[in-house]
Write a structure and sequence with these properties.
Layout (H helix, E strand, L loop, with lengths): L1 E2 L1 H12 L10 E6 L22 E3 L1 E4 L2 E4 L3 E2 L8 E9 L7 E13 L6 E2 L5 E3 L2
Antiparallel strand pairs: 1-8, 2-3, 2-7, 4-5, 5-10, 6-9, 7-8
Length: 128
């Protein structure tokens, strides 16, 4: 995953100035049908009529990698999400700040009745 502009600024201010940083208290995984990019301007799956909602995520850190500690499962789609190509980690269930984002290895069409699930340990955020 790549960090967003807001995360990069937060880290640099905390690390290299006297500024302080407020750590998020919760993290949420979002699905996108286009690349959110560092500015978070991609197209997130719509919540209207689809049962889509960002899902909570928890992480453990080992070395320079954070991985999701448990499976992240989205609700059964009540309408098509479209082709999900990217994911993003946010600090809020709606709105909020994009923390990190990545392209899926393989884009996935989510149709009515489908459930998207990210197994434990499959979502990695690495500082390299």
């Amino acid at each position: 995953m790549s960090f967003s502009n807001s995360t990069e600024t937060l880290v640099l201010n905390w690390l290299l100035t006297g500024g302080s940083a407020t750590r998020p208290t919760a993290w949420y995984l979002a699905l996108f049908t286009s690349n959110p990019g560092e500015a978070g301007t991609g197209t997130e799956v719509t919540t209207v009529g689809t049962a889509y909602a960002r899902q909570t995520a928890a992480f453990t850190v080992s070395g320079n990698t954070a991985s999701n500690t448990s499976a992240i499962e989205f609700p059964t789609a009540t309408a098509t999400y479209g082709t999900v190509s990217h994911v993003g980690v946010y600090d809020a269930s709606t709105g909020g700040n994009l923390i990190a984002y990545a392209a899926l290895t393989t884009s996935k069409v989510i149709d009515t009745g489908d459930v998207l699930r990210v197994p434990a340990g499959d979502l990695d955020i690495t500082l390299d």
